[in-house]
Amino acid sequence: RDEGEMRDMLYTMLEHTGPAAMRYPRGNGVGVDITREPELLEIGKGEILRDGGEVAIVAYGAMVHPSLEAAEQLAKERIETTVVNARFVKPLDPLLLALARTKRLIVTVEEAYLAGGFGSAVLELLEENGLQDKVRVVRMGVPDRLITHGDAKLLLAKYGLDADGIYSRVKESIEVLDDRRTKSRRGVVS
């Protein structure tokens, strides 16, 4: 999610017995202080950065900060949102199962291709545990096609992977769920 966590990840990889891989974005970090000693992270364990509401945004890497910004925007409209820094794509954190049991909506956010990506792995985890019908999952990421190279900030905005795009997608998804809830109360099934 930032330079500090990248140092923690590198340290964790060095201390880990067995294979490990890390994906990191190109460009600059967000500018956090990196003077503290690196911390050993528990492999497969994410962190809850913001807790509340019926919506969870689960992001990793460079998508964590825009997800937090989107949650701030949503909070201004009284939409409380849990934000999780997933940290690891493999193994997935069992926290995802708890979120599926307690939230109406989970939005996964990744700066990677959607096909075979983090969001897909989350859906598979939910299916393996019989939770695929308990919560709506919306995956945000890069479409499965060749993407031209360019300024990262512009490309992220183009694919809705900036704070405004995440905010809009969460808002639209909540409106769809609310519309379905209203229709089912009136006896209309969609």
How would you concisely characterize the structure shown here?
The chain has 190 residues and is of the alpha/beta class. It has a five-stranded mixed β-sheet with strand order 1-3-2-4-5, sandwiched between helices. Helix 2 crosses helix 6.
Note the main attributes of this structure.
190 residues
Commentary on this structure:
It is a single chain. Helix 2 crosses helix 6. 39% of the residues lie in helices and 16% in strands. Helix 2 (64-75) links the parallel strand 2 (55-59) and strand 3 (81-85). The chain has 190 residues and is α/β, with parallel strands linked by helices. The protein has helices at 3-15, 64-75, 95-102, 118-128, 152-158, 163-185; strands at residues 47-50, 55-59, 81-85, 105-113, 136-142. It starts with a helix and ends in a 5-residue tail after the last helix. Strands 1-3-2-4-5 form a five-stranded mixed beta sheet, with helices on both faces. It has six helices and five strands; from the N terminus they run H-E-E-H-E-H-E-H-E-H-H. The model has no long low-confidence stretch (mean pLDDT 92).
Relative strand content: 15-25%
State the total count of DSSP E strands.
Answer: 5
Q: Helix content range of the residues, please? A: 25-40%
| Separation, N- and C-terminal Cα atoms | 38 Å
Shape: globular
Tally of individual helices: 6
Elements, N to C (H/E): HEEHEHEHEHH
Which parts are unreliable, with pLDDT below 50 for 5 consecutive residues or more?
none
